[in-house]
Amino acid sequence: MRPKATPTIQIDNDRVITTEWRFAPGAETGWHRHEYDYIVVPLITGKLVLETKDGVGSAELEAGCSYFRKVGVEHGCKC
Fold first, then answer.
1. Helix, strand or coil for residue 11?
2. Which of 17, 29, 54, 72 has the highest CB neighbour count under 10 A?
3. Which residues have a Cβ under 8 Å from the Cβ of 69 and sit 6 or more positions away?
4. Which domains does the chain have, with CATH numbers?
5. Does residue 7 register a pLDDT over 90?
6. Among candidates 79, 71, 78, which has minimal Cα distance to 31?
7. How far is the C-alpha of 29 from the C-alpha of 8, rounded, in Å?
8. What are the residues facing 54 on neighbouring strands?
9. What is the DSSP letter of 74?
10. How far apart are CA 65 and CA 15, in angstroms?
């Protein structure tokens, strides 16, 4: 069993939620679905494994380079 990534809610109001995720080596978020469009701002450069109902893929992250995703896609992330 993989360790769980640690979420910390920083802002939660009627317009946005800001969550900091900390991943230990090999950690995962577990399956989830975002209730809002979202932006990710990686703090490190590296590879993130993304699981969806359609299969497994990956994203190359670059520290400080944000990316956008639409609401509603159920997925899991692994480091």
1. strand
2. 29
3. 34, 37, 38, 39, 40
4. 6-78 (2.60.120.10)
5. yes
6. 78
7. 12
8. none
9. -
10. 23
pLDDT given for residue 64 in this prediction: 95
What is the per-residue DSSP string for 18-70? EEEEE--TT-B--SB--SS-EEE--SS-EEEEEEETTEEEEEEE-TT--EEE-
On whether the CB atoms of residues 41 and 66 are closer than 8 A, the answer is yes
Contact 4, 50 (CB under 8 A): no
pTM beyond 0.85: the answer is no
Interval 48-78: pLDDT, tens: 999 999 999 998 999 999 999 899 989 999 9
Give the mean model confidence (pLDDT) for residues 40-49.
92
**Residue 76: its pLDDT value, please?**
94
pLDDT in tens, 14-33: 998 999 999 998 899 999 99
